[in-house]
Amino acid sequence: MRHWWKALGIALLFGVVLLGLRTPLSPALVHQDPEAGPITLYDAFWTGATGSGIAETPCGPMVVRANTLEPFRFPHRSLLNESVRNLFFHVPMWFAMMVLMTISVVHSVRYLRGYDLAQDDGALSAAHVGLLFAVLGLVTGSIWARVTWGGWWTDDTKLNGAAVTTLIYCAYLVLRGSVPDERKAARLAAVYNIFAYVLMVVFLMVLPRLSDSLHPGNGGNPAFNQYDLDDRLRLVFYPAVLGWILLATWAYTLARRTRHLQTLLHHAHDA
Amino acid sequence: MEGYPPRDAMRPKEIIGLVQLEVALDLRQKASWAGMLLYTVSAVYLCYLGVRGGLPLPTWNALFWTVLLFAAFNALARSFQREDAGRQIYLHTLVDPRSVVLARTLYNMAVMLVLSLLTLAVYVLMLGGAVLDEAQVGVFLLSVVLGGTGFATVLTLIAAIAARAGNGMGLTAILGFPLVLPLLLSVMRASKLALDGMPWSITSTYLLWLVLIDVLALALAYLLFPYLWRD
User: Fold this and answer.
1) In which band, very low, low, confident or very high, does the pLDDT at B137 lie, cut at 50, 70 and 90?
2) CB of B169 within 8 Å of any CB in chain A?
3) A171 in contact with B at a CB cutoff of 8 Å?
4) A218 in helix, strand or coil?
5) Model pLDDT for residues B44-83, shown as the tens digit of each residue
6) How many CB atoms lie within 10 A of CB B86?
7) In terms of pLDDT, which residue wins out, A79 or A127?
8) How far apart are CA B130 and CA B118, in angstroms?
9) Residue B29 touches partner A, C-beta closer than 8 Å
10) How many Å lie between the alpha carbon of B37 and the closest alpha carbon of chain A?
């Protein structure tokens, strides 16, 4: 059973899609006003029954139809609304991409240590699949941005980081394509890959500190803390990250094997 | 191939010799210097014709850095072009490849230092320097110099890769652009703050990041260049 992790990835993603798309949303608090009827407080958060509310005037009976009481609900927040489910798709894409780019750079280092073309196949396949996940991340992010921030592309530091990362790996593929000699292409690409990866990681660390971002965790927006990522989202989010990473790794191994077979076929033709 | 590259210490004498060689070779090729200058002047003149005076501060800043970035690409992309196979083998038998990349980076930094100040001079002359009136001129000049030399540290290795791939100019721009972008963003921010007259304590953060990126790029070039230099 050495393929268990593939099954695990698929099972996790199946669960993520099912739970992530089918779980109903519910607001944090519903205030039962005697005159106005129920008032839904989307952006309230539940701190446990301490008896004191956030309203200035004393509230009537507070009926909590909340996250905390009903069996399994995602928080219904204003602006986010149903799009909160994108958390299980958009964010894990970047996690998966970073894992693949790390696999790629590790293979590039190994290539330079032994000049074994099999290592280069690994680096190239990982970069290919990583780029696919970057594009998926951009697409899901763009849709989410349209819904919540009102534009397909906003001037945001994380978006610049994503754009730079995508450009780097496109440039990596262009570099490979422009050198006809296989071994020379592998060597130059490995050098570029290592150089670009290190600078990219520094960039992704530096950039958020240079300016504010609309993303959670920047510029006063809450990050994954108790207000923002509630426990029920977390319960689906972490398996989603693991599931997408496993799927990406599987895709990478398939790409690598396909490339290996193509090389064999190519050599068979030549011979 | 085992044990390549040799793990011996840096060789300052060798590096100084190589820098002197670069200077001598470049002084002999006055046309390349003239070409760089002409490129800068033409680019600035084009901007001048396009905008016709009075630019607001952010645009003035952005346009300046765009001109300087393209001038840098133009100047640095040719930095490994004259390395034909024969000369490369000759150098290879004489010196450590890491000395070559350090010498070339140092020389390119010097070139960019001159080029960025010249570009600034031409730019101020043609598009007007009214924005400098309320600026922290010293800090602004520092960010121009650091930005220019920063381009040199990042682009030297890229130029080497592109030259080895046999497609110098075009490939340098494609490979270099995404890697220069972080540097460009932070130096543009720093110079904008300096033009706004912000004190050194605010601007210095961005310039420190810049120096960090420079040092990192230099270290990586030192480690990686030997792998480019064999066939």
Assistant:
1) confident
2) no
3) yes
4) coil
5) 988 888 887 678 888 889 999 999 999 999 888 877 776 6
6) 8
7) A127
8) 18
9) no
10) 29
